[in-house]
Structures are given as structure tokens and as C-alpha cells.
Amino acid sequence: MEKQQEEQQQQPKTWIDKQANSPYPIWALSALSFATIPLATKRLPGMPSLLQSFAFGGIFAGAGYVTHVGDAENGAGIATAWCLSWTFLNAKRTIMSMKPVPLVLLSTVVLDTVIYGKKTLEVNGYI
Predict the structure, then answer these.
(1) Reduced to 3 states, what is the DSSP secondary structure of residue 14?
(2) Which of 3, 82, 113, 118 sits at a 20 to 30 Å CA gap from 58?
(3) 91, 106 in Cβ contact below 8 A?
(4) DSSP state of 44
């Protein structure tokens, strides 16, 4: 009986909860970060630097790997921390540029922050 209740509590309830248990949202962000490297090389306004594009792409891929191997809680924590870091470093410049590619990148980072941040806050008992 207790095991059945425990399983029901662990079942994802919303779309966001289901995505937080999957590595695909953060892997998509990783792929997008790597795909924007040519634009970072050209120093397109609003884009992260070349170094940031490589570094964040690798970090996001690593967070997805952690989630993929079964540690969704730590994967969500890593994804949340680094999405917030990306936002603090790049959001103002991205919004001021009003260029479509940097805005899509920012939107994806914000979406992943919401997806994985919710799980991180739940795991740590804040919500």
C-alpha cells in the first residue's frame, strides 16, 4: 500500500514535470548553443561569445547526460544553475539587440530554467 502511494507521488503530473525527467529539453538547448557558434564567431549583436557558446553547450549536454543516466534531481539542479548563469550573463544584451536568433536562444534558456527549476525547487522542499 505504501509503495503504491509512493509511486503515485513520484508520477509526473504536468507537462513540465514530465519534461523535467527527460534529458531532451536541455539537450535541445545544448544543440542550439552549438548551432549558434558560427553567429558567435561573427559577433552578431546579442549572441554570447564564442567561448560561452562552447562552454554552455558542453555544460548543458552534461546536465542532460546526468538526467539520462537516471539522476534527474541532480541533472535538474545542474541545468537550473547553468541556465540562470547564462541568463545573468546574456539576457540584457540579447533583449537589447532584438535579433531573432538570440531571442530564440534566450527563450529556450528561460523555458529550460522553468522546466528544471521547478523540479529543483520541489526536490529541495521549497515548493
Answers:
(1) coil
(2) 118
(3) yes
(4) -
Q: Among residues 62, 66, 36, 61, which one has the least CA distance to residue 51? A: 36
Amino acid at 23: P
Cα distances (Å, whole numbers) of residue 58 to 33, 53, 63, 65, 79: 9, 9, 9, 10, 11
CA distance 27 to 14: 20
How far, in Å, CA of 95 to CA of 15, rounded? 27
pTM: 0.89
SS3 at position 78: helix
C-alpha cell at 93: 544584451
Distance CA 116, CA 81 (A): 9
Buried b / exposed e along 40-59 (16+ C-beta atoms within 10 A) = beeeeebbbebebbebbbeb
